[in-house]
Amino acid sequence: MKILVDENMPYATELFSQFGEVVLLSGRTIQAEDLHDVNALMVRSVTQVNDELLAQANKLAFVGTATIGIDHLDLVCLQQRNIAYTNAPGCNAVSVGDYVCSALLVLAEQQLFTLADKSIAVIGVGNTGSQTVSRLTALGAQVMLCDPPRVEKEDLTGFVSLEQALQADIICLHVPLVKTGSHQTKHLLTAELLTGIGQDAILVNSGRGDVIDNQALLALKQMGHAMTLVLDVWENEPTPLLELIPYVAIATPHIAGYSLEGKARGTEMIYQAYAQFLGLQADRSISDILPVPAISRIDINQSADQTFAKKLVHLVYDVRRDDAIFRKSIMKAGGFDEMRKNYLERREFSSLRLVNESHYAVESLYQLGFAK
Ligand SMILES: NC(=O)c1ccc[n+]([C@@H]2O[C@H](COP(=O)([O-])OP(=O)(O)OC[C@H]3O[C@@H](n4cnc5c(N)ncnc54)[C@H](O)[C@@H]3O)[C@@H](O)[C@H]2O)c1
Ligand SMILES: O=C(O)[C@H](O)[C@H](O)COP(=O)(O)O
């Protein structure tokens, strides 16, 4: 059995070697000839799995992507070739929630605001959006929810329209890239909709870059629109619109989901799916492999407020680290992918246990994801 795996998939060799030979390649450069005699292909979002890539796939029976998004898989092509596929829904949702929380707490400190005083809208209330909602709610914010496809299917009440969501002080985008059907998201934020966003607003995109018309956003910023931008995802990755970067307050190279736990969970989920596909028992686990975090417990000696939450959040993950590396590396050829490949270890809030022997009021910190 030969299993071809993107080299940026942590713990892949440890897990997939249960089934056979594991071959590691750079996901961005996997070619059709690499798939000759390969039984299973395990990718990340940078590999376009389509007719062109699968042209020489004579034995391929399974494709796994260790990601939430599946816009890089041509599902029709996989079905036509009778190739099974799986993704890893929710694998890095906690990591994305941590990212948004870290970014908004940076901006809250810089712009002197309290999240509880802001109107916040989350657009796309699935796995990642819900993680953002629970963190912001823990920090006292009232969060508006916008998810027309869910409202249509689940008959939910209290959700707002896209137009209402775009009036919020803070707008967080968590939608997938959908190019067909009645809820398409490519350029969901058109030039016209972007223009209607408030001058004091904050716009965070950690979904997919194509959801915002990046050229229109640049034109708007060049005309002096003052909204604050947090962009983790960009149109045309790995070569984002360089002129846009100086207008972005927090800019990162598509790493919102890159906690070690999130990436490892992605690998483990497709490993388990492949074992099931083969009718075998998955006998390995990432919990046996993940390293102990550098700081794993802290004694709590005060009740929680936003300032205290910020200290703890940024102790575990301060997004400014990734923003600084992004600005330094993005001008270099291949810089975007290089930053992702050499991403510094980052742990989730849950890696830090808060010991509260004096029973201070810190329930909100546990709601943020810190461990008890
Ligand atoms: N930046 C990163 O590192 C990172 C990490 C994980 C996921 N993502 C991206 O985020 C996307 C969302 O992830 P998820 O786990 O929350 O997915 P999900 O499928 O759990 O949730 C997506 C939600 O968006 C909603 N939605 C779809 N179209 C919409 C529209 N037009 N308007 C409003 N809502 C809409 C869906 O109904 C669904 O509830 C993924 O598809 C992926 O592209 C990025
Ligand atoms: O869809 C996802 O899960 C995320 O966008 C994921 O973090 C992307 O990471 P990549 O596969 O590009 O390494």
Can you offer a commentary on this structure?
With 372 residues, the chain is α/β, with parallel strands linked by helices. The protein has 2 domains: 2-87 and 259-288, Rossmann fold (3-Layer(aba) Sandwich); 93-251, 3-Layer(aba) Sandwich (Rossmann fold), CATH 3.40.50.720. It contains 14 helices and 13 strands. It has helices at 12-16, 51-54, 75-80, 93-111, 127-138, 148-154, 162-165, 191-195, 214-222, 260-278, 306-316, 320-329, 335-341, 363-368, and strands at residues 2-6, 21-25, 40-43, 62-65, 84-86, 119-123, 142-146, 170-173, 202-205, 228-231, 250-251, 297-299, 353-355. The strands form 3 sheets. Strands 7-6-8-9-10-11 form a 6-stranded parallel β-sheet. The site of 4-phospho-D-erythronate has 10 residues, from loops.
**Strand percentage:** 5-15%
Quick check: average pLDDT? 97
CATH superfamily of the largest domain: NAD(P)-binding Rossmann-like Domain
> Can you tell me the CATH architecture of the largest domain?
3-Layer(aba) Sandwich
Biggest pleated-sheet summary = 6 strands, parallel
Computed structural class: alpha/beta
Number of helices: 14
The hetero molecules present are:
nicotinamide-adenine-dinucleotide, 4-phospho-D-erythronate
- Estimate nothing, just give the exact number of structural domains: 2
Measured as a percent range, the helix fraction is 25-40%
CATH topology title of the largest domain: Rossmann fold
Top-tier CATH class of the largest domain: Alpha Beta
Number of strands: 13
